[in-house]
Write a structure and sequence with these properties.
Distance between the termini: 35 Å
Radius of gyration: 26 Å
Shape: globular
Number of strands: 0
Helix content: over 70%
Mean pLDDT: 77
Largest sheet: none
Order of helices and strands: HHHHHHHHHHHHHHHHHHH
Number of helices: 19
Length: 493
């Protein structure tokens, strides 16, 4: 019986992949990413005001956007475990140092440097967890889609719980308590996530040195079929050792991630500006939680019933739906109206992100999947930081609708970009079996999902290995059969 009919699907299938501990560790280890920006704003605001708080929070965001792909690349090359252990320790140390600097009265430049260091060392648990789920699911696309949907939904739940928890800790305990708690979480659960048995080691390309290696096979004047096959095998292995990360599809997905981050940041800024204008700044978190609730529900529903629609079509539909649902924000004038409006938007956010990250898994090279996932996460963060820098001053001058206009402009632009992208811009996006690539792609060793048929590549490698080892001794010299007693040649095997 095939895996697709024997293995459980939906939530049961996801928990069967990694066990019950992996989602718990992954969720609590990524919660600091949602705690830290809000916690930093609250802590710095109590001492230096909102202007300095925004600058420090932006330094944290930008540091995370820059450091994310670096950590992802290191995880691909050296394995998740050592990279995560180092990053978790460094990130906790940077957060504790930032708290000490604020409480000790250090000047703003020192706070900016420490916040950037905290951002650079964020362990990128979310993107690495998605890369891990994709690896665990193997070639089962239905199970892989459910796992990626589940993990993306965990992000939505985290970004609902994180800001609310940061506000509660700041009021009930101390303004610095959110950052301290984030440091403890990343030390404990980040370490547990790193040490979990599902943590992958270095990829094939990393073990090969990450760059093309010179061939050790010497050419012969008259190459035999065996030598030719051996040369082709070496060329394939050499090409796989230098797999490029960027492709037109990944560039487009990164741009869509930036626009999605800008849409969420513009809406969040508008909600905060509206709450402050109504004299209830503390209500902004509750209003924003409406989006996280509906987004989480939609995400879990996608896990339970993923559907069979082409991923590119699903992405276009969810972006278009989000654009339509975002436009009513321009008419919002009260907090209850804002809560209903952002709640409606949230019903499209998780399906949008689920399709986005699923397409990254399809178009990104398997050898550099962690880096591809962190790259998209950095795109989301970069979009948030850029939109906050634009929407904040606009809201201060023109009111909350100006910030909502930034969100509408970003998501409408995203919908247009996705709609006009040429067909086939992401390879392997459909749910059907991948089509065989050309012989040139096979020789180049392309390992993208939906590119070279894995079963054909495996058969090719097995046949070449059989032919090579059949006529070559262990020391690499040609095998010369011993003559028979009657003097006739020994038949070839």
């Amino acid at each position: 019986m095939s895996r697709s009919t024997a293995a459980p699907s939906g939530f049961r299938g996801v928990f069967a992949l990694g066990g019950g501990a992996l989602p718990v560790h992954a969720f609590l280890a990524r919660l600091p990413a949602a705690l830290c920006p809000v916690g930093t704003l609250m802590l710095i605001n109590t001492r230096d005001g909102i202007g300095a708080a925004g600058a420090v929070a932006s330094a944290l965001w930008l540091g995370q956007a820059v450091g994310g792909p670096v950590i992802g690349r290191s995880a691909d090359r050296r394995g998740h475990r050592p990279v995560l252990l180092v990053a978790c320790g460094a990130n906790a140390l940077a957060l504790f140092a930032l708290v000490s600097a604020v409480l000790g009265g250090l000047p703003l430049p020192a706070l900016l440097a420490l916040a950037a260091a905290a951002g650079l060392t964020v362990p990128q648990v979310g993107p690495l967890a998605r890369a891990r789920w994709a690896r665990l699911a193997g070639e089962d696309r239905v199970l892989k889609g459910a796992a990626l949907s589940f993990d993306t939904t965990l992000d939505e739940v985290g970004f609902m719980v994180g800001p609310a928890l940061a506000g509660i800790l700041a009021v009930a305990v101390h303004p610095a308590s959110a950052l301290v708690f984030a440091g403890v979480l990343i030390l404990v659960f980040g370490t547990l996530f790193a040490l979990h048995p599902t943590a992958p080691g270095p990829t094939v390309s990393a073990r090969a040195g990450g760059a093309a290696q010179p061939s050790t096979i010497q050419p012969t004047p008259t190459p035999t079929p065996t030598a030719s096959a051996r040369t082709r095998t070496t060329r394939t292995m050499t090409a796989r050792a230098a797999v490029p990360l960027w492709s037109p599809g990944l560039v487009l997905l990164f741009a869509l991630a930036v626009l999605q981050g800008a849409a969420m940041s513009g809406a969040n800024t508008g909600v905060n500006a509206l709450a402050e204008a109504r004299g209830e700044p503390g209500a902004a978190g509750l209003v924003w939680a409406a989006m996280a609730v509906t987004s989480s529900v939609a995400g879990f529903a996608t896990v339970a019933r993923p559907g069979s629609t082409d991923l590119t079509v699903r992405l276009r539909r969810t972006i278009a739906l989000q654009a339509v649902l975002t436009l009513p924000l321009l008419a919002v004038s009260g907090l209850w109206e804002a809560a209903f409006a952002v709640g409606a938007v949230g019903s499209a956010v998780a399906p949008h992100l689920i399709a986005l990250f699923a397409l990254v898994e399809r178009t990104g090279p398997a050898e550099r999947m962690a880096e591809a996932m962190t790259l998209l996460g950095s795109g989301l963060i970069l979009g948030q930081a850029l939109a906050a820098a634009v929407a904040g001053p606009l809201a201060a001058v023109y009111g909350h609708r100006a910030a909502f206009a930034v969100a509408c402009g970003a998501v409408v632009t995203s919908a247009v970009v996705a709609a006009v992208a040429r067909p086939g811009w992401v390879r392997g996006a459909t749910g059907s079996a991948p089509t065989p690539a050309s012989q040139h792609d096979a020789d180049a060793g392309e390992s993208r999902a939906g590119g070279v048929d894995a079963s054909r590549t495996k058969d090719f490698t097995r046949n070449v290995t059989r032919n090579v080892t059949k006529d070559v001794t262990p020391d690499g010299t040609p095998h010369i059969p011993a003559p028979r007693a009657d003097g006739r040649p020994t038949p070839r095997r």
